[in-house]
Amino acid sequence: MEKNTFAFSLLIRKCKGDKRRADIYARITVNGEQKEFSVKEQIPVSYWDSNKNRVRGNLMEARSINEHLDNIRFSIKDKYRKLLDENKLVTAETIRDAYLGIQTQLKGHKMGELLDYYKKIWVFKLKDGGFKNYKTTIKYLHLFLSHKFESGDIFLSQVDGEFATDFEHFIRTHPIKDHDPCKGNGVGKHIQRFKCILNWVANDLK
User: Fold this and answer.
1) Least CB-packed of 66, 70, 194, 197 within 10 Å?
2) Alpha helices for the chain (secondary structure H)
3) What is the pTM for the complete model shown?
4) Judgement on whether residues 95 and 137 belong to the same structural domain of the protein
């Protein structure tokens, strides 16, 4: 059997309305065939490092977008390997569709629903101390949703790098306890737990 040639890359396309800004796209290449899709992130053109396929800089927004891009890269490669392992048709289109299929499933679920379900499942699996920290993160998320969105909730498919950046800022500026603000490593731990919750639901839907 002829071995497939597989490649994944990221690129930008300038916005039609503002040439100084660009949308980031993911490109899958299999045996010369290419398929692309938008990763739903927009940046100033000058911020893009085409050699490294990453956003330049070390600011929180750049780090957040780069982490999002890394997650997409990992997921695409995982979809490629699974199609191979299951002896299914491997093309740029089938890999793209396998990845976007998860995003389609997420569209029907909301963040609040996920948080309640996560608490229900994991309260019995994590030790008291560990779940106590997750409960605090979940409380911050509920407060953030009520603060930022009129409906108090959003669909999981709407969660992106901007959401994570705004959530981090919210933790820093809206402490649950006024006399005990959350800063530094504490904020980082909340973001880490938030990502664990999202990864859990994404894997559960595979």
Assistant:
1) 70
2) 60-85, 92-106, 111-122, 128-148, 161-173, 185-204
3) 0.53
4) no
